[in-house]
Amino acid sequence: MSDRTTSTRTPVRENRISRTAAMALMLLLAVYFLLPVYFLVVAATKPQGDLASTNGLAFSHFDLFGNLDTLFTRSDGIFGRWALNSVLYAVLGAAVGTLISALCGYALAKFRFRGREFLFSVILGGILVPTTALALPLFLLFSATGLVNTYLAVFLPSIVSPFGVYLARIFAASAVPQEILESARLDGAGEFRTFFSVAFKLMTPSLVTIFLFQFVAIWNNFFLPMVMLQKESLFPITLGLYQWNGQTARAPLLQESVITGSLVSILPVIVVFILLQRFWRTGLAAGSLR
Amino acid sequence: MTDLATRATRVVATTEGRRRRHNGGGPRAGTIAAFVTPFFLPFVLFYLVPIGYALWQSLLVVRRTGGQYGTSYTTFGGFEQYTQVFQNTEFWGSIGRIGLFGVVQVPVMLFVALVMALLLDTPLLKLKSFFRIAAFMPYAVPGVIAAIMWSYLYSPQLSPVVDALKGLGLQPDFLGPGAVLWSAANVSTWLWTGYNMLIMFSALQSIPQELYEAAKLDGASNWAIAWRIKVPIIAPSVVLTTVFSIIGTLQLYAEPAVLRQISSNISSTFTPNMLAYTVASGNNYQQAAAISVVIAVITFVLSFGFMRLTSKKAGL
After folding, report:
1. pLDDT in tens, A6-19
2. Which of A219, B143, B160, B172 could form a disulfide with A57 if both were Cys (CB 3.0 to 4.6 A apart)?
3. Domains of chain B listed by start with CATH number
C-alpha cells in the first residue's frame, strides 16, 4: 500500500475513487436509516384499504387527517391519554432526575469527603446493571407496598440515572471553577445558594444534555411500564401501541391506527432531536472519555 | 466565564485576611449529605434493594404440604432455583439464541458504526451533517415502535421490500424460523448504529489534527491514517460501545416481543428476559428472580471481562 501511495499520480485517482465509494456507501446507509420512517409517513397518509393493495413506498389516496381523527377518537380518546402519560413520565421524570443527578454529581466533583470514591464506584457500577433485571423484583416490592398500577410505579424508578450522575460529575468538574466557589463561600453564601445561583448557571448546557438523555430513556422505556401497569389509562404510548399491535390479528382495522400512532409518537421527539443536536454531542463526547 | 473567574480570584485575594476554614475548607458533612441523598436514596431503594431482594427471592422455594392440593409455604431452598435454571433447556435455548445474536450483531453494528465515523472524519464526504442526523435519528425511536415499523417491512402482505425482492425472483421470508432472529437483530442494528457511531465520531473529533500532519508528510494514505492512527487512539470508545452493546443484547425484550405478535417462530421464551417474564407471569417469582440474577451476573462478567481483556491487550 505504501508503495502505491508514494507515487505522485495515484493519490489523486485514489482520492476520486474513494470519494465516490465513500459517498455511495453513506447514501446507501442513509437510505437504510430513513426507509422505515419514510414508509411510516407514507402509510400514515393512506386509508386502511390501500395499505395492502398499493405500493408501500408510493403515496396513494391522501387520508392523513381522517387517520388522525380515527386515532384520537378510538376507545374514547385513549391514545391522547397515552401521549399525555408519556409526556408526564418523561418530562417530570427527566426534570427531577436531572436535578438530583446534578446535585450528586456536583458534590462528587467539588466536595472532598470520606467515601467519595467508593460512592462514585457504586454509582458507576449502577450503569452496568441491566435495568430490565430490576423490573421484576421492583414489581414484587411495589406490590407489597401497593404502588403497582399507579403513576408512581413507573415514575419513581425512572428518576434514577447513574449515567446522569456520571455526566454531571464530569461537567461540574470542568464547568465550575473552584475559585468561584471559594469566593461565594467567603461571601457567606451557603452551599445550596452557591449551587443554585452560581454552579447551576455554569452547568446549564450540560444539564440540558443530561435531561435529554434521561428524557429519551424514559420515553423509550417499555419493560418497566409493562411489568408495572395493567390499567390502560396509565399506559405510556409504547405500551399502548404494543397492546394495539397485538390486537391487529383480530381487529385488522387497528393497523392504520398503530401506524398513524407510531408516526405521531416519534415525530415530535425527532424534531426536538434535530433542534438540540449540539447537546447530544457534548454528552456523547463526555461518555467516550474515561 | 473568564470575567467571573478573574473577579473570583480578586475576591479571593482581597479577602485572604478573613479566611475562615472549617474541616479542611469543605462544607460540613450534613450539607454534603443533603446534596448526595436526593439521588442516593432513590438509587438505594430502586437499584440496590431490588438487587438484594432478587438475590434473596432466588434462594427461596415454594413447597406444599400434603400433595398437589395441600397448602403451600415458602422456605429457604439454597441454590435449588439455580439448579433448576441450569437444568432448564429453554434457558439454554434462550442463551444460545442471544449468544448467536450478540456474536454476529454486535461486531457488524460496531464495524458499520466505526466505518461511518471514520468516513465522517475525512474530507471525502459532502452532506456530513445530513448523514450524521440520518444515522442518529433512530435513537429517538422507542424499540417497540422501531420493531412495529420494521414488522410492516417484514410482513408478506404489506411490505414494499418483500414486493421488490419478489420482483427479483426471490422468495424472502423475514419471519421464518431461521430468519426471524436476524430480523430482530436488524431492528437493533437500525436503532443503535448511529448512537455508537456518534460516540466514536466525538472521540475522533477530539484528536488534535497535528497528529496526522507527520503521517501525511510521509505520504501515508487516508486509509493508513484511519486504521493505523485513528482507530488505536479511539479504542477506548470502541470498548465502551462494545460494553453497552453487550448489556443491551442481554436485555433484549421489546423487539422480539413485537415480532412475536406477527410471527409464530418466536416463542415466549425466545430471549432470557422473555423467559424471566414468562416464568414470573406464571407466579413462579423465585425462579424468575434466579433467572434475573443469572442474566445480571452474565452481563457483569462479560462486560468487565471484555474491559479487562482489552485493557490488558492495549498494555494499559
Report:
1. 444 455 666 788 88
2. B160
3. 18-76 (no CATH), 88-313 (1.10.3720.10)
